[in-house]
Amino acid sequence: DLQICQHRAPTCCTKKMEESYQAAVRRERAQSIQALNFELKYMIVAHITAFQEAFESLLRFAENRTSSLFETAYRPMAKEAAEPVKELFTDISLYILGAETTVESAVLRFFDSLFPLVYSRLINPGITDLSEDYTECLRLTRQDINPFGHYSKNMVTELSKSLWPSRMLSQALSLGIEVINSTEHAALSKECSRALVRMQYCPHCQGLTLIRPCVGYCLNVMRGCLASVSELDVQWREFISTLEYLANEMAASHELETALAGIWSSINEAILHAQLNGPQLSATVDKVCGQPKQQEGNLSSANIVPVKEVPETQTFVMAHTSLNNKRREFINYMKRSRTFYASIAERLCDGDLVMRDSSTCWNGEDVV
């Protein structure tokens, strides 16, 4: 009553043993594919973590640098500006990690929050009544009167160009993990599990427990079983090429590191622009939002303090170098995995499964 290991010679197998063998080959094949995938998946996960740590390090540096700008040059509004600054860098971090947000919305939201502070603490430092309604009016007016000139738009443009490859790379790495996970659980067809039993266990039914499959026979069986997985080869090669492209984009002229490090400078230029145009802004705001209560006395606007370029610190240089090195290492590793799905049958037939250095092997019917 054997269905798979039928042979003219006497056999020591039963139908029930054949069923056990089918369960065994399914389990073994899943474990073999998992073992092959493990290194690749481990490397991708490790690099996702390493990239995120490097991103976070750069973001923290840029955020600290921006906070120190307010504490040194714009002390009257430093305390109130802390929350908008924190929100800006949180939004940038979420964008890089793939959240449904845009760089433009993050930057403009920041400048919406910043304008009431600049207006009431620097341009008109005598304002005492900064009610919710008046603050909201200032926020909405910012969109119409554009107090920060072209600096806010330039910041959007520069950051969008620089952050986009990082966001895409982050999403691509997550996609790579999904692809690998899906291949681990690819179901074996009935024909495939029968072919694997015939290859690995049918010799046992004749007491030939030490004979292993011939190399060519193993490759034929594995290629048949893994046809659906090996079809991923073309897409996987394209995926690796895309990773290379994104990594090159990250290292190109619009560098993430440079853009993040320059945020404080863009904000500083924007604030200086608003201060220089203070009288015109005040006239427009008074028409739109009304005149707020002022302190008695002659309070001139705060002195404009130009801030010089802060020299590159060791922290930034280390984070910059770290990100570049991780990028290079990762792409070199992924390039080596370009043929991963094309060669999966060969890799499964490698090692202990087949007979390599012997004159005899099993061809599915007999010992040859």
From TrEMBL:
The keyword DNA-binding does not apply. InterPro entries: Glypican, Glypican_CS. Keywords: Cell membrane, Glycoprotein, GPI-anchor, Heparan sulfate, Lipoprotein, Membrane, Proteoglycan, Signal. One of its GO terms (cellular component) is cell surface. It is a lipid-anchor; GPI-anchor. Its main location: membrane. PANTHER family: GLYPICAN, GLYPICAN-5. Cell surface proteoglycan. This is GPC5 protein.
